[in-house]
Each structure stands twice: as C-alpha cells, then as structure tokens.
Write a structure and sequence with these properties.
Blueprint (H helix, E strand, L loop, with lengths): L5 E5 L6 H14 L6 E6 L1 H11 L5 E6 L16 H6 L4 E4 L2 H6 L4 H12 L4 E6 L3 H5 L3 H12 L11 E5 L13 H19 L1 H6 L2 E4 L7 H5 L6 E4 L6 H19 L1
Helix pairs in contact: 1-2, 1-11, 7-8
The protein binds 2-phosphoglycolic acid (PGA).
Length: 261
C-alpha cells in the first residue's frame, strides 16, 4: 500500500499572526485539490489563527507546534504544555529538531521525556534525528542516528508507535543549502526503518512514515520524493514563501499522480 506523502513546513521563529494568515489564505486556495498530508509548524502566537483558518479547508492539513514541555502545568516559566497547545487546535508536535539540540542544549533524555508526553496526547509527532558533519565525516552517521532513535524511543510501547513519524534531518544540511543526495538520504531512511523494525517488528517498519529534511527546495524536492524509503519532506526556509511551498505541494501531488497512473 502506498502511503500518503507528508509535506511539513517548519516556519521556525518567523511570521507574525498577520503574515501567517496572509500565507495560509493564499496557500489553501493554491493547493485546494491536494492529496498530500500537509503540516505547518507555526510559532505559538500564530497557532490559533491558523487552526481557525484550516477548519474551513477540505485538504488534509494540520497545524503543529515546534516545541513543548513534558509537564502539563506548574512553575516552568516560559514553557508551554501539550494540553495548552491542543486547546488551541494543535494536532502535531515536533520533537528533537537539531536547532533545539544545538542552540537550546536539549539532550536525548529531554527528547525521550517529550516523546513520552507526546504519545499520550491526541496529537501525532514528528521525531527528528540526524548526524552532525563531524559524525558524518568520521563515518559515524548511522551509529549516531541509531543512538538518537533508541534514546528517544526508550520505554515507548509498540501500541503507541503508530503516532510517531521520523524525520531524517542531517544537521549539516539544515539551512545551509547543502543537501544529502537523494541516494544518501534514502539509504539512511532505509536504515532508520530497519532500526524501527528491529525494535518493534517488521509491520511497524512497513507503515512508518519517514521524512527527509535539510535544504529542500522547489528545485530538488522531486528527487527526494521519488525515493522508495522517503515518505515526505520537512521543509524550513522553502516553507516561508507561499508560492514556493505551494509549488512543493503541487510537485508532491504530481508524484502521487504518477504512482497511480
Ligand atoms: P531548511 O530547514 O529546509 O531550511 O534546511 C529544515 C528544518 O529545519 O527542518
């Protein structure tokens, strides 16, 4: 069975609520017949306006949160909880992004706590893994990705694993204009699938959605989408311009169409 292609945009710390609404109004018109599953990770202040807008749309689109804390409430100044986010319409959570690991010192243990909290919620989640340039150059890419997967998924039971999608995002490819080649990324995605199969059984591996992320553009997106172990894309910079992101969604639709013909 062919899976739906997931096209996820990560706006990071960009767009005011007004800019988010302007983007989304145009986007929902431009991709109104899309067969993709679209997720937009918006800044917290934009979420409510975005979730209001997508209620009227008939495409499969969800608004996600780029971050959250693992406790539900309490004295955690500056943090935001999953129940708070779900109250304003969040349906997907992003965990383990390399910018959180690098700039905010999130550890694999923190990520595991977040995954544990997220799988108990009504939302699904995208767990990001990926090696640094140093790890790649010392041929430790697979080893570090496997370590991240095992740590993040520690004590996550098989019954909840269906809520998790994995994004393979080599840290050295994020925002740099450098991408892994489609062949390299497909190979790593296949390795990730194999790790999950070893942990949870072959059926889980088969249904797992694995996304590629890191300098995806209008020009290169098709090359990744045509690879057999890549089920979608997580897009930063190229998701900020509505025209560009719509064009990537339309490319994904043409790939879906090509598969069914
Ligand atoms: P990029 O970001 O597409 O700008 O490289 C990807 C990401 O951070 O998920």
């Amino acid at each position: 069975m062919k899976k739906k292609i997931i096209i996820a945009g990560n706006w990071k710390m960009n767009k005011t609520p007004k800019e988010a609404v302007d983007f989304l109004e145009k986007f929902l018109i431009n991709v109104k017949d899309s067969k993709c599953k679209v997720i937009l990770f918006a800044p917290f202040v934009d979420i409510e306006k975005c979730t209001d807008l997508i209620r009227k749309s008939n495409i499969d689109i969800k608004i996600g949160a780029q971050n959250f804390y693992w406790e539900d409430s309490g004295a955690y100044t500056g943090e935001i909880s999953v129940p708070m986010l779900e109250t304003i319409g969040v349906q997907t959570l992003l965990v383990g992004h390399s910018e959180r690991r690098m700039h905010f010192m999130e550890t694999d243990k923190d990520i595991n706590k977040k995954v544990k909290r997220a799988v108990k919620s009504n939302s699904d989640l995208i767990l990001c893994v990926g090696e640094t340039l140093e790890q790649k150059n010392s041929e430790k890419g697979q080893e570090s990705v496997m370590f991240q997967l095992k740590s993040a998924l520690e004590d996550i039971p098989k019954s909840l694993i269906h809520k998790i999608h994995i994004a393979y995002e080599p840290a050295w490819a994020i925002g740099t204009g450098k991408t892994a080649t489609p062949y390299e990324s497909d190979k790593m995605c296949r390795f990730i699938r194999m790790c999950i199969e070893k942990m949870y059984g072959s059926e889980i591996g088969l249904y797992l959605n694995i996304l590629y992320g890191g300098s995806v553009s209008e020009e290169n997106c098709k090359n990744f989408l045509e690879m057999s172990d890549i089920n979608g894309l997580l897009i930063g910079g190229a998701s900020l311009q509505e025209k560009c992101f719509s064009s990537i969604v339309r490319t994904a639709d043409s790939v879906i169409k090509g598969r069914t013909e």
